[in-house]
């Protein structure tokens, strides 16, 4: 993963799949290339193969199951997403919670396959316990701010600063901030508070001009890095 980390979760919006999904991915790719800043797209499982071929951006799954290959109807395994072209996956998103043992098992499988991992949590007290499992990144998102348009970096900056203190105990793991991030200033503040990047969904997926929102996010991230 490359800093600044920018992850856009397509979720299951009406523009997350099919031609609309391809169009928005290509618009984001254009901005990513223009600013030489990597943007990761976390997409529905049905779009992993398509978008892995359509754009040069890293493509993530939104979830994997911690099961082995075999009789598990409906399961999405680490092997499946890798074969489809994914570089990694989110785990334990607030809309797809899994148990701690399932997180551990999924991370173990992903590491063996060389897949990147982002584990989502809802409070800073979980940073160290999850960090000890050695995911690539931890995405902290207070659930009450998700999709609210009220940024965690402004409404609850202490969530980020306390999480930053906790992530220092597992220095090989990146901390990402999410929930309510809506503009470049939100991104700038989140990174200045110590996060390695941000995770967003609705601010991009619901925008009339998503590429302009992504451009603003990138500018905010680069400005924060330039200002140390």
TrEMBL record:
Role summary: Involved in the gluconeogenesis. Catalyzes stereospecifically the conversion of dihydroxyacetone phosphate (DHAP) to D-glyceraldehyde-3-phosphate (G3P).
Listed binding positions for substrate are 9-11, 146, 180, 201-202
Could you read off the lineage of the organism from its UniProt record?
Answer: Archaea, Thermoproteota, Thermoprotei, Sulfolobales, Sulfolobaceae
GO MF terms listed in the record are: triose-phosphate isomerase activity
Q: Which domain of life is it from?
A: Archaea
Main location class: cytoplasm
Which subcellular locations apply to this protein? Cytoplasm
Q: How does it assemble?
A: Homotetramer; dimer of dimers.
**Family annotation (Gene3D superfamilies):** Aldolase class I
Family membership noted in the UniProt record: Belongs to the triosephosphate isomerase family.
Q: Which keywords belong to this entry?
A: Cytoplasm, Gluconeogenesis, Glycolysis, Isomerase
Instruction: State the reactions this protein catalyses.
Output: D-glyceraldehyde 3-phosphate = dihydroxyacetone phosphate
Which species is listed as the source? Acidianus manzaensis
Recorded metabolic or biological pathway in which this protein acts: Carbohydrate biosynthesis; gluconeogenesis; Carbohydrate degradation; glycolysis; D-glyceraldehyde 3-phosphate from glycerone phosphate: step 1/1
Q: What InterPro entries does the record tag this protein with?
A: Aldolase_TIM, TIM_sf, Triosephosphate_isomerase, Triosephosphate_isomerase_arc
Tell me a GO cellular component. Answer: cytoplasm
Quick one: which gene encodes this? tpiA
Name it: Triosephosphate isomerase
* Protein's GO biological process: gluconeogenesis; glycolytic process
Keyword check for Isomerase, yes or no: yes
Q: Which SUPFAM superfamilies match?
A: Triosephosphate isomerase (TIM)
Q: What is annotated as the active site?
A: 93 (electrophile), 141 (proton acceptor)
Q: What class of enzyme is it?
A: isomerase
Reported EC number(s) for this entry are 5.3.1.1
């Amino acid at each position: 993963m490359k800093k600044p980390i920018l992850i856009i979760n397509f979720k299951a919006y009406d523009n997350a799949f099919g031609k609309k999904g391809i169009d928005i991915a290509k618009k984001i790719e254009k901005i990513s290339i223009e600013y030489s800043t990597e943007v990761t797209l976390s997409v529905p499982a049905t779009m992993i193969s398509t978008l892995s071929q359509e754009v040069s951006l890293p493509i993530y799954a939104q979830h994997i199951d911690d099961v082995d290959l075999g009789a598990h109807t409906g399961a999405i395994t680490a092997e499946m997403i890798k074969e489809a072209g994914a570089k990694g996956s989110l785990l334990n998103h607030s809309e797809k919670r899994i148990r701690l043992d399932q997180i551990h098992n999924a991370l173990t499988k992903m590491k063996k396959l060389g897949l990147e991992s982002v584990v989502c949590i809802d409070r800073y007290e979980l940073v160290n316990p999850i960090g000890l499992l050695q995911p690539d990144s931890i995405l902290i998102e207070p659930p009450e701010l998700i999709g609210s348009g009220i940024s965690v970096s402004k409404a609850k900056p202490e969530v980020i600063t306390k999480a930053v203190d906790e992530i220092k105990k597992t220095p090989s793991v990146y901390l990402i901030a999410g929930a309510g991030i809506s503009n470049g200033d939100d991104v700038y503040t989140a990174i200045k508070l110590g996060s390695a990047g941000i995770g967003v969904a609705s601010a991009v997926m619901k925008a009339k001009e998503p590429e302009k929102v992504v451009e603003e996010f990138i500018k905010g991230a680069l400005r924060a890095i330039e200002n140390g």
